[in-house]
Structure formats: structure tokens, C-alpha cells
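#structure-requests
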Amino acid sequence: MMRAIRMALMLCLAIAGLGAIGVERAAAQRIFYLNPQWVPYGGGPLPPAVVRGGFERGHDFPVCRAFAMGLQIPGKFLDGNCNVSYGGRGFSIHAPFEVLIGRQYPGVDFWIRGMAPDLTNIVPAGTDSGQTVGVCVGFRNDGTAHPGKIFNGSCYFEYGGHEERVDHYQWLAAHTYP
């Protein structure tokens, strides 16, 4: 019993010592943090650390969010606008709106596929019906993928001027384990 206590104490001191000598605790635990931030966009070039999700015809979509129908809704940056969806309709919102930036790590992906969203780890993007919505990328049957919002277990996104709902999607995590 005493030996176990001593081992636990040594482990705690070792972890504390790593922090004291400047080694990031995240690196010691192999946790990578996206550090997501929504920043204003008023036109012009996008910030270099913009988070991208989804693809169509050889290009990917930066993630944005804009106000529509009195709500802040995540969507895709396309042709200088933020395309979002709500209530079965699509909206193309002109600047100003916000784009999502985050820290990039070589070989680390913050898009999670194949498991239900962890509400403690989603990147919050707004609310809908009093519920926090996260950022998702929904996959269409035509092979394209589009950023949108997670709501009630599905991914909703704008496509062709209307809202699409899919159950085959990835969600954006605030931190991940490679």
C-alpha cells in the first residue's frame, strides 16, 4: 500500500516537474488543442489559420458563421459569403460575419468520424431552439461534403439554396488524441 502511494506521489511530482521545465502538459499527455476562435471577417483575404472542412469540385470550404433568422449559424465560406441554412432554406450572408481559426498540427485531424459528438468537446458555433450547436461536415451522396451545424444528432448545411440534413457526417473537436 505504501509503495503504491509513493509511486503515485512520484508520478504527480514528475508531471508537475514537466510543467515546471516548460514542457507543455498537452504534449506530455499527447492531447492536441485546436484553440478555436471565431474572428470577424469583413472581406479580403482569409486568415492563414482558417479551419477548413468539406470539399466540392477540387476546393475545400473554410468554416464560417453568420446571423440568419435571429440565430448565429455555422456554414461554409463560398465566393466571399457565408452560406448557412435554417428551416429548410439556405441563406448566403454577405460580410461582415465570422470565420473559424485554430491551431494546426502536422498529421493531426480535429474532424471526428464514426462516433456521436461529445458535447463537452464540440466547437460551439451558436444555438438553435436553446440548444448549443457544433460544427459538422455533412457528406452528400454525390461525393461532396459541406460544413454546417450539428442539431438533434444530424448535420444540417446549405446546398443549392436550401437546407440539407444528413446523418453521415464528421464533427469538429476542440481537442483530440492522435
